Structures are given as structure tokens and as C-alpha cells.
Amino acid sequence: MKIIACYSNKGGVGKTATAVNLAHALAASGRRVLLCDLDPQGASSFYFRVKPSRKLSEARFFDGDEKMVESIRASDYENLDILPANMAFRNFDVFLSQMKQPRSRLKKALAAVRADYEVILLDCPPSLSTLSEAVFRAADAILVPVIPTTLSQRTFEQLLAFFAENDLPTDRLHAMFSMVQTTKRLHADTMAELQGACPDRFLTARIPFATDVERMGIDRAPVTATLPNSAAARAYRAVCAEVVVRAGLDRDTGTA
Amino acid sequence: MPRSAHDCILLDPAAAAALADTPLGLLQPVVRDAVPTADFVALDDFDQTLRRSGRVLLEAGGMILLLQPDGAMLRQPGPRQGPSVSGLPEGPVKAALADLSPLRRLLVVGAGGLGRVTVAFVDDEGKSQVRLDLLSLQVAAGTALTIARPQALRGYPQAGADLRARIADCGGVPMATDNLCERLFPVAAVYDAKPVIALQADQTALDAATAIIAAYIPVARANEAGIIADHDTEFLHDYRIALRKIRSVLGLFRGVLDDGQTAELKARFSALMAPTGRLRDLDVALLEGTTYHDLLPKSVHAGLDAKFALLAEERRTARARLVQHLRRDGHAQEMAALEDLFATRTALRPGPVAALPARAFASRLIWKRYRRICRIARIIGPDTDDAEVHGLRIECKKLRYLMEFFAPLFPRDEFRALLKPLKALQDNLGLVNDCAVQQANLQLFLHGTGKRGRKVSLEVAQGVGALTAVLHRRQTEERTRTGASLAQFTSPQTARIFRGLFHAPKDRT
Q1: B256 φ, ψ to 5°?
Q2: What local confidence, expressed as pLDDT, does residue B307 receive?
Q3: How far does Cα B424 stand from its chain's mean position?
Q4: What are the residue boundaries of the structural domains of chain B, listed by start?
Q5: Which strands, in side-by-side order, build the sheet including B56-60?
Q6: Closest Cα partner for B508 from B363, B352, B373, B399?
Q7: Backbone phi and psi for residue B258, each to the nearest 5 degrees, phi listed first
Q8: What is the Cα–Cα distance from A210 to A230, expressed in whole angstroms?
Q9: With contacts defined as CB-CB under 8 Å, which chain B residues touch A220?
Q10: Furthest C-alpha separation in chain A
């Protein structure tokens, strides 16, 4: 079983869209997937039409309580289950900071369901916090969407610096360009610069800026499901193919 | 989610349609997937292996579906590449049909229309909380039913429970409690190559003999249409076995009918079998072809193919001749006359032991045959001639027939305890014989290849030589195993059971 986090310390970079479509593409490839919506805003849950779980408090989430397992909902897609967000998740940081060994708590909490899934995908809230650190410790791969703009570039560099300062495993950090507009010179220049500075860090696949992705809020379904032949869907499937290799899913025996 | 035995439920089509249209509490039904009605055919072999085991195999719209007795449904893409189960593409259905004989053709046992729809019951967010698969079967004969499969979704236990309760209210019957095949394709009688003959201990030996023969004549006749249609080679095989069993009764039940009538009937049944011999030999030779292909080097395959092409040609002629024979009025009249003879019994002439009680008579025959096998066993060793081993095989076959004929007269468990080592011994002897026959056939093949004006190539000779060596080694190994099986079958422990069952003081005459 592998844990993959969709993370960015900056909001609005297409993180949830990536988590949702990646989860669907992985499930469509025959892998059993759990998408954990850790963002209290619950955007992933919304896209899959799953209502928030009212009974799952932060205490129950991290204590390995049965309530966490009971809160998992089947999605409308084969092999894909959702752990919906709820507003209690907004207190994760406070709660974790009061616990012993807060950074390893998330991995322990997820152990309760590891036998049921081959991939656990974490849709993380945009912050650099105790929860984020727990995610970094728990994940086998951290996928960071980066819009090729100056501000995003700066945020990504901050993240790299944070990993270095805190002795976090930078080899688990994988970046991908998101909301790319090929007509913009700035986007092309930024992508070239970042790829030059961080060779091998960025995926080859790039997610275009597309209305089809925006429409997910109306369709409330992954674009890989509703418009499988669209450019966006093809790009997400290409991301999925690269993530499978980078996260070691292609050689995972399922016993990890 | 694993499926339980109650997952598939049979419903009346009208009830199923209403179910798919009616909200489930606050959940609204939404059709998610609908496959339009397609023609289907239902398949089974002549032994009705699927019907007997409560399974239904359907072919529809390029897909192959298997409905299992526990309610599970397997499916895989078609089409079939051959007439038997071996011709199915690899997949879950083929894996679940591993018990079917690859020699048997899958025959069409019924036809109709099949439609499938999946209904999701969704909440106010449009999210499915439970799904319902409905498979509708409309049989050409007029029967229609729907198989409902509720699919609970993780995290929504209440919706799953509500749907099950609703289905139960609609009169659903768990599929596991019903034989779906019987419902869809009822038949008056199912072919049985080994009919159970209800014998009573106080019946006479003549009663037993006539009951057995009367039961096996229809078995032979049931195979005639399949031989004529050339569905598969098992029809002729079963036909011959049924006739051979009848001949065994006439031969083994000596004195039940008077000698003159016994000789006359043996001749008549032999005459029925005689035209089938060559075709059966060719069937066996051609079935061995695949084995040779697998075992011999590729360099020999061309020669092998040419040889088997000739055999196939000869088979066509032999089959045409047999079909002509089976279609003759004379054949039908002879079969009808024999059927009538054993059904009415008025023309049967009882022999000196006709009035013996069946059980005592059976005990005497079985005990005598067992002791004969024990006597042969004492002289069988690793170096015994093949012909003597073959003789032992024939004796075992006769004993097996006797025991199977009279099984209803004896305690089931003890009888089974004796049949098991006998079957093991027969398996060993059968394999020894197969190896010997294949070696002889290979020599004939080698001889035949050279005879057709072409010099036997070195590769062919080497290939055949190598295969003969393999077969000889197998035969020797099997002979060793035969020794162990024979020792088991003639052991004091087995002999004690035989003696207790068939040579008790009351049976001694």
C-alpha cells in the first residue's frame, strides 16, 4: 500500500482537481483507492457528492477509532472510496500539537485501513503546519501542483527549503505544472527555469488551464470520468502513469 | 464487497420493473447503465453437467455469462473458439467451468432474450447509496424472470438493508434456493449415462438382469442422435459403454437366461456394437494427436499432421458408414425389439439360476470375481507380460460393472470403501494400457510413414524413438504404482470387507 499526498502550501493551484482526477484514474486502472479529504472545506468530497461525516471528530480520526473506518463511503466509481472531510478537521493542527509524536500520528491512523486499499490519496489543506509535517512523514510520494507563475515558483522554493531545514525526505517531493497556458510567455519561461533548477523533480505531464476542469464543480465528477477524451483528462491520465512509477506502485506487492 | 449466497434474487419481471421505478425512502431511482435486450443461447453438455450443478451458462451479445448456484454471476468476453469448454477464451467463466469435460460439445439447451439495467438509488446530492442490477431473461418458450442483484455500497448500510427489505416485499426468492435452469428450460428427463437402477434384495436374479438391461438400452439409444450429428466423440463412447454393460450382464449373469437365449442375445448386442468399432478406434487415435504434438519435436509435426489428416479422412468414411447404419430401419427395429423384449419380459426364457435372490446372486458373482483378481495379483510382478496385466484390467472392469449394477443392494459406505481402491487400481491399469497402446501406435505410425514411398527421415525416427522412450518410462513407473494399488486392493483389510459383504454365511451357496 502506498500513500500519496496532493499538497501545496499555496491555495488555488489545482490541488483538489489533481487529487480527484488522480484518484479516479488510479481506480480505473484497477487499483483499490481511498481518497482522504483532509481539507475542512471538503472540496474533494463535494466533487464526489459525498456528504461530510458528522460523527468523525479529530480525536476519533487519530485514535484509530472504528468511526474513521465507518466514515468511509463508496464513491460512484469502481474501486474508489472516499473519506469525506468535516469541519472538525479544521482543528487538526491544534489537536495534533497536543499529542505525543504528532508527526507520526497520521500514518498510524491510516494503518487501520491499509489492508483495504492499494493507494491512499491525501487531499491536503494549503498550509505549512503540524498536519503538513505529519503528511510529509506519512506519504510515500508528495505531489505538488505548481502554476508556472512567479508567486507559485516562490512558494515551491519555500517548500524545498522547509524540507531541507527539517531534514525531510526531498526525494519524495514530485512537482507538476498545473493550469498551464501555453500562450503565455511567462508560463513557458517559468517552466524552463524551474525545470533547469530542479531537474527530474517535475513530471513530464502538464495539466492545461481548461474550462473542462472548471466544469467539475457543475458536473460534480472527475473530468477523467465525464470527458475522458478531453485534453485535461488525457493530461491527468499521463500524470497518473508517471505517479504510478514514481511512487513505486508498479512494483508494489500490496503488503507494505 | 464479497457476495453472499443470497445476493441474487429471482423476481417476477413486473415486480422488478416496479422496484426500479419506485423511490427507496428519500432515495430516487436513476438508471445508470442499460444494455438493450440481446438474443442469448443457453449452453450445456449432453451430460447436463451444468443443469445438475445448478449453473446456467449463457452466450449473449459477444459476452459469456455464468450464473452460479450461490447467486454469483461471472462474465467474460467471447466469442468461443471451439465447440467444447476448451474453446472458451481464458477468463473467470472458463476457470469456473474446469469440471466440464473438454471432450464434450457445449450444446444449445435454450434460447431467448436477455437485457440488463443498473439502477442507482441516489440521495439529494445525486450520490448513489445503493445499486440494483437487474438481469431480465425472456425464454423463447414464454417464461420470463428477472435476476436482481442488490449491491450495497460501503458506508451506506441502511440503504442496502432497505433495498433488500423492499425486494423481499416484492416476492423475491433467493436464487440459491431454486434451480434456475429448471425454471427456464424444464425437461422431462435428463440424460444419465449411469442410471441408478432400483433393485431390491428379494428380487430374483432375472429381475435384476432385466432391470439393468432395460435401463441401458435407452442410454444407448439416447446417444444415437449425437453420433449422427457428430456433436462429439463421447456420444459413440457412451453408446458403446451402454451396450458393453448389457453384454457384461449377459456374460456375467450366467444361467439367468437359458444358454440358447443368452448366446442369441449376446450375438445381437455384439452385432449392434460391431459397426462402431472402427470409428471409435479412429476417434481415440485422433484424440491422441494433440498429445503427440505436445511431446514430439517440431521437426516431426509435418509428418504427424499428414498422418492425422489421413486418419481424419478415414474417420469421415467410417462415420458416414455408421450413420447410414444407424439410420436404417433395420437398426431401429432391432433396438425397438430388444427394448420390448426386456420391457415386457414375456419372451424371456429363464435359466437355472433365474429365481435366485438378487442379493445372494450378486454376492456370489462379486466374491468370485474378487477372488479371481486376488489370484492374478499373486502372479503379477514388475516383469509380468503386458497381456497378463491387460487381463487383470479386464477382470477389474468386470468387477466394477458388477459392483455398480448391484450397488443399491449393499450398504453404501462399505461399498464406497471398496470402490475407491478399485477405481485407483483401474486408473493405474488404464494408464499402463494407454502407454502400451501409444507405443504400439507410434511404431505403426513410423511404419506407415515409411511405407508411403518416402524414406523415414532421421528426425522422425529420432522423435518417435524419444517419445517411445518417454512412454516406456511412464509405463514402468505406472506399473510400479499398480503394484502398490493391487497390494492395497488385495490386502487382508480389503479382503475382510469383501468377505463380510459378499461371502457371509447367508450368502454362501
Answers
A1: -75, -40
A2: 76
A3: 19
A4: 9-184, 193-276+314-356, 357-502
A5: B73-77, B63-67, B56-60, B28-44, B107-122, B128-139, B144-152, B9-11, B173-174
A6: B363
A7: -70, 155
A8: 9
A9: 125-126
A10: 52
Task: From B187, B186, B201, B197, select the one nearest B219 (Cα to Cα).
Answer: B197
Q: Looking at the complex, does the CB of residue B156 fall below 8 Å from at least one CB of chain A?
A: yes
Instruction: Band the pLDDT of B461: cuts 50, 70, 90.
Output: confident
User: Are B155 and A73 within 8 A, CB to CB?
Assistant: yes
Nearest to A249 by CA among A47, A15, A25, A50: A25
Q: Do domains B9-184 and B193-276+314-356 have the same CATH topology?
A: no
Q: Provide the grid cell at B490.
A: 488385495
User: What is the reported pLDDT for A107?
Assistant: 74
Coil, strand or helix: which one is B173?
strand
- Comparing CA positions, the residue from B322, B365, B6 lying closest to residue B168 is B6
Strands B128-139 and B107-122: antiparallel
- Give B203's DSSP letter: S
Q: What torsion, rounded to 10 degrees, do the Cα atoms A87, A93, A96, A97 define?
A: -150
Determine the CATH number of domain B193-276+314-356.
Answer: 1.40.20.10
CA distances to A101, A120, A173 from A130, in Å: 11, 20, 18
Separation of alpha carbons A22 and A224, rounded Å = 9
Indicate the CATH number for domain A2-251: 3.40.50.300
Reduce the DSSP state of residue A90 to 3 states and report it: helix
Q: What is the mean pLDDT of residues B396-419?
A: 91
At CB < 8 A and 24+ separation, what contacts does B223-227 make?
B224/B326, B226/B46, B227/B322, B227/B323, B227/B326
Per the CB < 8 A criterion, the answer to whether B130 and B159 are in contact is: yes
What is the nearest CA distance from A70 to chain B, expressed in angstroms? 6
Closest-CA distance of chain A to residue B151, Å = 11
Could you tell me which residues are beta bridge partners of residue A176?
A145
CATH of domain B357-502: 1.40.20.10
pLDDT of residue B31: 95
- The H-or-E segment that residue A34 falls in is strand A33-37
Instruction: Map B418-465 to HEC letters.
Output: HHHHHHHHHHHHHHHHHHHHHHHHHHHHHHHHHHCCCCCCHHHHHHHH
Which residues, in sequence order, are CB contacts of B289 under 8 Å at separation 6+?
A: B304, B308, B311
Domains of chain A, by residue range, sit at 2-251
Q: Which fold has domain B9-184?
A: Hypothetical Protein Pfu-838710-001 (2.40.320)
Which of A72, A76, A220 faces B155 most closely, judged by CB atoms? A72
Q: Do B155 and A51 touch (CB under 8 A)?
A: no
What was the ipTM of the complex prediction? 0.85
Question: Which of the listed ranges A41-45, B21-25, B169-173, B379-383 does the model predict with the highest average pLDDT?
Answer: B21-25
Q: Which of B267, B262, B270 is nearest to B354 (CA)?
A: B262
Contacts of B280 (CB under 8 A, 6+ apart): B236, B237, B240
